[in-house]
Amino acid sequence: MSYSEWWRDFLKGKHPWDVPSKPPLSVIDLFCGAGGFGLGTALAARCFEHRALFSAIADTDTLAMDVYSQSLPVRKKISDSLATIVDYSVEKLDSVAEFDYPPEIMQRDLSAEIGKVDLLIAGPPCQGHSNLNNHTRRNDPRNDLLVNTVAVAISLQARAVVIENVPTAVQAHGNVVHLARSLLASEGYAVADRVLRMDTLGGWQTRARYFMVAVRNTEQQVLDAALNSLLGDKSSGYFFPRDPLNVLWAISDLEGCEGSSVFDTPPVQGPENRQRIDYLFDKNIYDLPNSKRPDCHKNGTAYSSVYGRMHPDRPAPTITTSTSTPGCGRFIHPTRRRLITPHETARIQCFPDNYTFIDQQREPSRTAPLKKWLGNAVPPYLGMIAVCVALSVLLNKSPQLPWAS
What we know:
This protein is an alpha/beta fold.
């Protein structure tokens, strides 16, 4: 089966990501959201003939954790704030940092996992780093949650750690990325990082994320070699394709499903936005001219892609939490006179059709929960690749990619 065939079948819900008969890997997922990073981890574990068993997931969004646990094997759900979970103090000397005393887990359910964790994954809130926010957000105190995450990982004695964020995280106020790396290194972890962009790794969206990978009791050159082996140049051989897939490849079979459920219902637009959408299709163009934009979006005062229509032969643009608003990005369907539906958004983000976002007993609205869960998710495709790097070192073997078998 080809790469594109395998992934299309995956998006349609035809490939399992959890195989209970496989040997388990104990995973902790912090800031877990609805499970994008967790699903990517489950896919990575499968590539090594293992099963990701989520000993604990943590998030203040309890509804998101309910979604997560409907589709992935979760033992404990923790809704406590990370700031209350771990006690630690950091001493910084020039470019070196270390903990003043061993970090200590304060949460009872999590403390029971000390010494049992194979892998800790986390996606600390990234609003303080994002270029989509104004420059003062770089001072956001939530940036320290990256350091809190490292303290939790060390106190749990996690064998491997994978942390994700937006690419501009390395520019955050206080240089928290360097601080996190230094703290992990001081505790015996080899640490490597890389920005992964989905479309340059064979995906169907332009989304990019920063990943930090750390493995305990491992030589730095071993981790660097694993990273280069999986993501290196052409001379070392590519594990993942370099040619992207296009957005219609991911969602074309959903055309005609509009309105069958909240999940398949496009956002309702007012008269002015409906006219803008019609204009794009009537003129067969993909960028709205200034004359048709609101004044606030004219003459270079906003991103050129706003009110834009997706190109059918290109990867989708980066999905955000604002896909219901054409004035926030290129979120108009490539062939239909409407915005993309939550279902199409999920496909673009690499969630398969059988991932349970819709609870029959409590169907969410299209607005707050679905927009946040989908827009903030780590695309499982990118999570899988980053976790494959960690597991290749932890398990001392190369991944067996399912589409290559």
